[in-house]
Each structure stands twice: as structure tokens, then as C-alpha cells.
Hints:
Helices cover 57% and strands 9% of the residues. The two termini are 54 Å apart. One of its GO terms (cellular component) is endomembrane system. The chain crosses the membrane at residues 129-149, 169-192, 240-262, 268-286, 345-368, 793-817, 853-874, 941-965, 1063-1084.
Amino acid sequence: MEDAISRGSCDDVYQPCEMSYKPGLGYSRYSAALRQLIPVRKTKVEKAAMPVDKVGMLSFTTFSWMTSIMWKAYRKGLKVDDLPRISPLESCEYNARRLEFMWTDEVKRHGLKHASFRRAVWRFIRTRIFVGMSVFVMCLIMGLLGPTVFMRRLLEFAQDEDAPLEEGIWWTVGLIACEVLRVLFFTALWGINYRTGIRLRSACLTVLYRKLMKLPSLGDKSVGQVVNLFANDAQRIFDLCVFGPLIIGGPVIALGGVIYIGLVLGPYALFGMIAFILFYPLQFMLSRITGYLRRRTIVVTDRRVQLMHEILAAIKLIKQYAWEATFVKRITAARSSERSLLQRAAYVQSVSIALAPTVPVISAIITFLCHVGAGYNLTAAQAFAYLALMPIIEISQHCIAYGAPVLAEGLVVLSPMKSILLMEEQQPYVEVPSDVNQAVVLQSATLAWDAVGGDNDSAGAAAKNKDANGDGRGAETEALRPALAIPSRDALIDIDLVVPKGTLVGICGPVGAGKSSLLSAVLGLMRLRSGQVALDGSCAYVGQQPWILNATLKENIRFGHSFDAKRYFTALRACSLHKDVTTLPGGDETEIGERGINLSGGQKQRVALARALYADREIYLLDDPLAAVDSHVGKHIFQEYIKTALKDKTVLFVTHQLQYLSQCDTVCLLKEGRVVESGTHAKLMSDAAEYAALISTYVEEEEQDEAQDGQTDTEVLLEVAQSRSGLGLTEEAVRRASSEVARRRSSHSAEGAHTVKGDATSAGAQLTNAETLEKGAISGRTYKAYIQAGGGFLMASLVMVVFIVNVASAAFSSWWLSHWLEQGSGNTTIEVGNQTMVSDRITDHPRLDFYQLVYGLSVVTILATSLIRGFFFMRVTLAASSRLHDRLFHRVLRAPMALFDTTPVGRLLNLFSRDLDEIDVRLPFTTETFLQNSLMILTSLFFVAMVFPWFLVPLAVIAAVFLFVRAVFSVGVRDLKRLENVTRAPTYSHVITTVNGLATIHAFGKEREFINRFMGQFDDNSSAFYLFNCSMRWVAIRLDSLTVTITALTSVFVLASHGVVPAAFAGLAMAYAAQLSGLFQFTVRLSSETEARFTSVERIDAYTACMAQEAPAVVPSNRPAADWPQAGRVSFSRVCLRYRPELPQVLKNVTFDVHAQEKIGIVGRTGSGIVGRTGSGKSSIGVALFRLVEPEAGRVLVDGVDVSTVGLADLRSRLSIIPQDPVLFLGTVRYNLDPFDHYSDAQVWQALERTHMKQKVAALELQLQAPVLENGENFSVGERQLICMARALLRHSKILLMDEATASIDTETDSLIQTTIREAFSSCTVLTIAHRLNTVLASSRVLVLDAGQVVEFGKPSVLLAHPNSMFAAMVAAANAATGSTGNSQLPAQATDGAPAAPASNGTAGDK
């Protein structure tokens, strides 16, 4: 299901709602509900539709419409395809419209400041809540009438040996009728409340999702908080409607009990009722404490889930830096705080659960003791009729125990929902230009970001859309280290820019100049403080760091549009994607993982570009799209995509690659949020101002780079070769080098003529596998794992003993009462008039005090064992959940990267949010109640069988029916719960994807499609969730029918044994038979619900058990020296690497040696056809070095030490990496640079100064303690990259890997950074993976990869001079792309050294 939804197009997922909400329809809106009052309706139900809308009152009340589903589950099992479509009345669309109308009306009436979301929700559900409460009251009235009237009369009949049989029959029939009506009313209550809960759940979360779509950013909300709303709080909203109204049961029962006791037992017996009523304030206090603790727990849980999301999103960097220990501490601290609150809440809740069934018993004991103590007689009919009332009183206690905390939690979660609904929506400030020839106009425009908790730079460096997904979201300011929120500054100031239609505008400027903010301003994602922004035409947007969907490659490009073959293949060719596609295992049907995990950086960027081109929009906003691709690919994209495919479009082209600006129609230079210069390239050069200086500096630096290492560009080589200089290049080599660009371009065109093929079913085509759906009963292994996590079988046995003692003490009090009443007066004689006769009053018994003492002491025993039980159970269950969490977390953190490549973040996050919440809160609650009730049922059956042994005969038949019903039920509820789990995860993934891509979604106008997809996914989950809950009631009424049968049989036995069995023991049997009614079905349902909740334990245990693990962090027997590596030598020896077993190799017999302190440039041709992780294999060198994936052959040596023999922490902590995608964590600037606090502030400042970030950080109010938002969103991408570079500087590693590290940095800053690298890492070995070849021209040697093999390795000058050099051809292509102007003469150093033959078959060239 998850895959189908993830990969399906928006249009395929969601079917429009058959009904639409229309306010003001009067009573006609209740017509559908009133039709269900017809006893039997014979209407044809569509096979794929939910049957509940078309059934009559009998089927609705008995849940008979569920029988076919339950039977199918029992016979064949259930799959996702078997789920019926959710009823239109429960659909997201219908209910969201209704709630939105009510919320809007609430805001109109009271204003935003005083509007109450709770009032709107109450208005949404109030009619159904009132109806449900009325039905519940009728149920309670029937429950009161049965024991207080009919059972009491039946027991009086049993006491009177002379009473006629007909009288007993009438009382028996009346008792059975009351029980039947009570069961029917009770079942109808759940049928009403379930639908109410589903409707409110769908409405609230759909309204929230729609609101997210209207926001420019998340403001002060984090992704984790939003996911938690959809994960855990959805259940709380449902429970609010289902259990919240049940609290009315307490007052009704209290009133009925007072009336009964006052009339039957007299005023003194009301003391017991006072004890019962006094429990209400205690229960209320306990619920308030539970609610308070749960509110605090929810906050901590949000923080933990948010941190977990951050870890999963940045797991690759965490592993590369060996920061697992740091994040273990952070999660442990968060979990410790959470556990402390959970522990207190669980103990309070456990005491509440334990007291709930004992309070009626204690009340009865006090009632009887006060009644007898006042001198009144107590008969069996009075006593056991009152005891038979206990199950109804107990229901009221359960209602309070369930309803009060649920009501408190439900009201709590409405507050964060309201806070999101009150967030200011994206204000449509973009107008239409007055001149129809103008596409984009900014006139005196000053715009700002709604940043929270971080300082925006003066030029929009806080642009929140500059994160890795190009979105525009904010983040929570709260980090583990507290940081104050700082108000934001304007990002763009007094901007004047007019872009005529069909114009190509090049936008340049230093890091943090406001370039990305300018594009966001055009998209309408910022706050317009003054001026005007106008736009005429539809937009397509490509973010600086691309946003990729977890879908097939084709669907990423189509992005919901209908398929047009010509447009599609044009997009592939223009983006140089055709060869990549043909090498993928499933062609363009190959699934792309979350965040494009199985694509290289350049490929992700080109997929985003193809998506934009395929959309065929009028205005294109391209945010530095060529930074992540090789120069020759960049040239191809610029010429074929920007200049050719978009020749008639309006293009705003942000770039750091200045060589392309001369080909733009207009150039705009930004600095500190202002437009410094604007005009044509020629005009700006003639003005000789900042732009001219920037270009001149760029040209000079290019020439200096060439001269520093005795190198030249290909244009110079061609000139010298053509003039027959002494380089020894043949005419053939000259022709080959000069035609390289044309050959590459023509190859793309030629390849594009072929159809993109691929088998979507072939190995590796599907990256993300469907989540495993377990079958059958929960295995004993799961229960064993839970018990062992809780402390082992000894601790579990101890808990069971305490449970048994607690229930036995309550049962003993009832047996003792029966024994006491049966003793009567103890044959005491009394004088009545002139006659002496045996008294029938128990108050005349000579040992009355003894009976009263024993009966009274049972209260103490019950209370003591309840408190002890609560303490032990709480400790065991919380220990179990904490150990399961810790075990899972450590296993996930130690899992290889393959897990994260193939498993959606939403699925893993589901384990740490919803599943863990189930184990923390709901599983202990259901388990404790189940164990308690199971023992009470056994006690009840024991007492009935003890009094009436013949009862065992029909009990055997009842047991057989029970076992069959439970067998059917267990299979059905298990399958439905698993389906609910499986259909839930895609919703979380979709929410995360949406939040990360808000800017792209807004730019393409895809809000409707994403809302439809969400509603489709959520409706699927609602269907499974609703059926799962209905399956509980399906079995409940059938088991209640069995308990009514037991009550009826017991009544018949009382009639049959009239005058034989003492009334006291007959009353005991009747009271406990009545107790089974409701308790039996509730317990059986709880057994399956508990088993269903154990699926969360099963999922966590399965992941924990099956999850592969990395090599040990530390190998004690082979720990490297403290100063290893000392020299920094790196050797690859015949290394073969593949990312997953089903994929081909990405490195093939790679062999090369890097000397100490060498600076090695690693280059390759993007899109060379490595399957699974397409690319030349450049980044795979780093993967092998850091052992993110273990090589399947060969060795990697560092200073002669085989890295496979040392621990991963020892290895990775001695290396440094500056990743291609910069990653910052929620916290402070200092925390991101030095999470272990190993370095002084002075050292941190020095690192920032070397990366030219000191001035930026010093300008922040809190400087090093300034907050960093989630994913570093209050810094531009370039600034994030510089912070990552400062992080690497601090580590002082002897080996540094730079993976496209300067791709997002402007040329001027790049030049400064290159100088810093040469100086700061002069004594280090540096491996530089680069697209821009000028960054590796100054390297000691260059490693050239193609198709995962080493094709050349030597000095740049030697490789450039070789007639068959691929590197020379790449440089020729790069210089042809950049239009670089070289010197007219080759520097003398270029001829130094003999030419080196390119490496072949994986062997190194010149070393």
C-alpha cells in the first residue's frame, strides 16, 4: 500500500467525495442518520463501499454488517485491496469543509484573538455527542432496573419457599429483557461515537494539512511537532469523541444508587454511597494530575520525535563524523525526561485503574457495615441485589477512568492545532504588471522572512527556502542548549527590477547576498513590507538544493501532469538525463528514494530541472542549478536547456558560475540584500564598477590557478599544439580535443532518439520495499521479548501474584458476605410476644463483631494490594518500553546506510512516534485492565459453578461458541490492526515530504494535488482504523449475548433450586453472573485489543532483530595509535563496491595510492552509467574510505592500516569530510561546530575566520550561542557549507575528503576558501571531489574515474599533455563551456615532467 500510494500519481490516489457539505440545510442534514432508524433496510451496497450507510437499525446496532468482513478475514485473510472505501460521511473532504466553515464562523464571531477552536470542535460534534449520551443514559437506566428491581424480586422469591413459581418466572423474564436492552443500547453508543470520532479526526487533520499548504513556512513549528500532530494526536482526537462523553455515566449511576439505597436499605446505608461519591473528587484529582503529566509528556515527546527526525534525516553525516555518541546522549536525555513524566503519569493512572473496580466493592462493604451497625437487618435479596448493581457502578468508574484523562488529553491537543490555524497565511502580495510585456516587476520592494530564533543576515541569508529542499519553512527555536529568539531583519531592501517577457536574467552576488530570497519574493513566499511585486505568467521553480519525491523517476519529472512523450524526452535530453535513465535497472520506472537518496547530487539537480521543463511554464526561477553538475554537463544544460528549450521563456537564473553571465540578456548583481548593479554584461563591464571587478577577479584567478601548478586550459593547449610547440601533440589529438564538446553534445542528441527502456521489475528498480505485513497470531517470541524487556519472567510472575492477591481480596469479601448472611442469626432465639423463636436477623448473631471485623479488614487488603499492584505494574511496563526504545534506537543508529537508502524516514519515524506511544501509554493501560478483568471473570464463573454445579454443562456449550467467535474475531482484528499500521506510515511520509517541499509545491501550483493525495491516503487509513474499532464492537455484542445467556441460565437455576439452595448463595451466584454481563465481552475485546497493540511491540522487535548492523565502533584488540594516521597515506587496492547485493558494482577493481600530504582531485563524468547510484564513482570513493558500505573485495589502507580491521568510530573520528549537501543541526552555532566541547572559543573563532564566517557570526546577537534552526534554515546554503568547512578545520584530521564542497559558494569566496584549504590543510592529505575542474587544477594529482574504474591518475600537467587523456578532453569541454580566456603562451612549467600514460584496467598512472 505504501508503495502504491508513494508512487501513484495524485489523480490516481484520490476519488472525489460523493457528497459535499452545504451549511444551513436545517433538519434535512439528519436524513441519512434518521434512515438508519428503520429496523431492516434491504438496499444494494456497492462492493467497494463501506456498508454502514445502507444498513438498518438492527444491523447497525448489532454490527452485523461487519460479519462478511470478519468472515473473509477468518477464511482468507485481509489485504489492503480488501478495505472498503470510507463512507462519504466520514471522508476527509466532507468533514474538513464542515469544520472549516465552523472555524471560519467562529473567527467571524469572536475575532482571531478570542476565537476558540474548542468551541468550533464542540459545534462540529455536539449533536452526535448529545445523541450518544442519551443512548448511554438509556443503557444505564436498563442496567439499574435489572438488579435493583427484577433481580431483587427474584432473590426475594428464592427466600420465600412458599412463593408461587409464576412470580419467579415474571421476574426472570423482566431481568433478561433489561439485560438485552442494556446490551443493545450500549452497542449503539459505540456505533455512534466511533463515527463521530472518525469524522472529527479526518476533519481536524485535513484542515491542518490544508493550512500547511497555505503557509509560506512553519514559523515556530518544527517538522517533528507537525508529524507528531498527525501521528499521536490523531488518536487522541478520536478518543476524545469515543470515551469523553462516557463521563456522564458517573452522575447517573450515583443518582440511581442513592435512590435505591435510600429506599431499600435506609438512610444509614448512605454512608457507603458517600464513600462512592467521595471517590469522584479523588478520581477527578487523579485525572487532572494525569492530564497535567500527559501535557508535559507530549511536549517532551514532540522534542524527542523532532530530534529523531533530525537524526534520521542527517544519519549519513552523523556516521561520517562518528557523532553517534553525541546523539545517543541527546536522545537519552530527552527519553529520560519523557520516561520520568511517563512514570509518574503511569503510576497515577495505574492506581486509578486499580481503584476503579474496588471502589464499588468498598462502597458496598461500608454500606452493609453501616446498615447492620445501625441495627437494621440485611437480607440476601438486599445485599446481592446491591452487589449485582456493582458491574453498572463499575462501568461508571471505567467511564471516569477512561473518559477524564482522554478528555483532558483531547482538549490539550486542540491547543497546538489552534496555534497552527492561527498562523498567518501566505498573503498574496504579488500583482499583475500594468505592462503586458513585463513578466516580473519589483518596484521599491522591501521584503522580509518570518524567521524565528535566529538572526537573518542583512541580505536574506536567513532565507528559509534555501534548505535542502527549497522550501520556505521555519523551525522550532528550542534546542537542547537554550537560545533566545532574535527578531528577523529585512532580507531584500528597496529592490527595483523589471524583467521583460522572454528575457534571461543572470543573478549573481556573494554568499548571503539575497539571491535565493529574490526568487522567493517573486514566488510570493515572503512578507512585503513596502513597494510592489508583480508577476505575469505561471512559474516553475528549481531550488538550490533539489526537492525529490519518493516516487519513480518518471513521476518525479511528470509531477502530476499528464504524460506527453515529446515533452518528456525533450526534458530528458535537455537535462542530459537520457544516458542515466537507460542505465537504471527499471529505466524511468526506477523508484527514487526519499530525498533522492539513490541519486548523485548532479542527478538530483537535473531531475528537478527536467521537472520544471516538463511543466512548460512561462517563468522559470532557477536557483544556482549548475552548481552540482560537471562543467561540461553544465555547459550542455545552459545551452540546450536555458538558451534553447527556454529561449521564449522568462528566466531568472541565479548562479555562482560567472562564465555564463555574458550570455544572459540582463545581469543583476546583489549585495547585502540590495541590487548593486543591473544591466547588460557589456554595459556593466564598461561601467567598470563592482561587477566588472568581480569578473576581472574571476579571470585573474583562473589564470593564476593555471600558472600555480604549471597547467593551462585546453584552449591554450590547442593554440600551442596548432602552432607546433614542443608539446608533442599530434594533429589527431588536436582534432579529438577540439571536437570533444561537439561529440558530447551530439551523443546526447543521438541517445535521445532512442526510447527510454527499463524493466521496472528488475533488480534494483524498486528501491523502497513495501513494509512487511505479518500474518497470523502474535508470536510467542513477541510476548517473550516484551516480558524480558520488562525485567524477565520472575518479575512478570511477581506482578501476576500481586494481581491475583488484589482480585482475590475483593472476591473474598463477597464470599464472606454470603457466608455471613447464610449463617443468619446463628440459631439465636428471641422472644416475640409470649413465644420463643429462632431469629432470622444477622444482627442477633453472637459473633456479629467477628464477621464485621473480617468484612471490614478486607477494605484495607483491597486498598493495599491496589497500590502495590499499581507500583509494580508501572515499573515493569515502563522498563519494557524504555528497553525496547533504547534497543531499537541503538540498532537504528548502528544500521548500515542501506537501511536508510531503502526505508522511508516516515516508516522509521513511525516506530519512534506512534508505535512507541502505543507501548508507552496504551499497551500498559489495556494490558492491566485485561489482566484484572480476566481474573474477575474466572472468579465469577467459579462462584456460579460452586453454587450451581449443573451450570458447567451449558457452560461447555457457551465456551465452544465463545472460542469460535473469538477465533474469527482474533484473526479479523489482527489483520485490521496491521492494515491500519501499514496504511498509516505513508501519511507521515507524505506530510514530511510536503513540509520539506512547500516552496516547490507553491511554485508549481500543486497544492490541490498534494491535498488530494493526503486525503486519499488518510481516507484509506481511516477505513482500516474504523473497521478495526468496529471489529471490537462486533465481537462485543456477540459475547454480551453469551453473558445474557449465562444470566438467564443462572436465573433458571435459581427457579429450579427454589427451596434447595440457600438464598445467600443463590444471590452470590446471581450477582457474579450479572457481573459477567459487559465485563466478559469487554475483557475478550481487551484481549484482542491488547494483542493488536502488541503489533507495535512486534514491529519494533522485528526491526530490532532483523536489522543488519555495521562493524563494531571499536575493536578493543586492534585500536589504532592515538596519533593515527600520522602521515595521511591512502591506498586503494583492487577495491570492488556495490551498494546493495542486487545492484551492480559502483567501484570495479579500483587501485591507486595517495602519498602523505598530497592534494588529490577526483573527477569523473556524471551520468556514466553506474546502476543504482548513477555517476562515475567519485562519491563512492568516500563511501569506501569511511566504510559507509563495506567493499566486497579489495582493501583500503590508511598509513598502512587496513581500515576494515579497526573500529568504525576509531576510523571515522580520525577523518574529516565536507559533504556535498551541508547539514546543520538544531542547536547553536557552537554546538554545530564542536558538539563534544573539545575546543576553546578562541579555536572556534579561528576556524570561522579561516572560512570567512567570523564576521557573519559576530554580527549575531548571541554570536557562538546564536540559535541554528532545524536544517540550518536561518543560514543560506553557502553559509551552511562554510560552517561545515569550519567544522572540518576544527577536527585537525590528517585526511580530508571534500565532496563537491564549494558547489554552493560564489567564485570569489571559493577562491578565498581554496587559499584557506591550501594553508590550513597544507600538512594534510586532501581528496577533493569536484565538478568545477578549476578547483582541482592546483592538485598534486588528479584521479579520473569513469564507470566505476580508474582510467587516469597523474599530475594535471602530465595528463593535459597526453594525447589520449580523458582529463584533457574533460578540461577542453569545460573550457569550451566556460569560454575561458587563456594566455597566448603556455607557461614553461607545463612542459615539466614526462607524459604519463593514462591508467587502464583500474591501474594507476603517474604517481
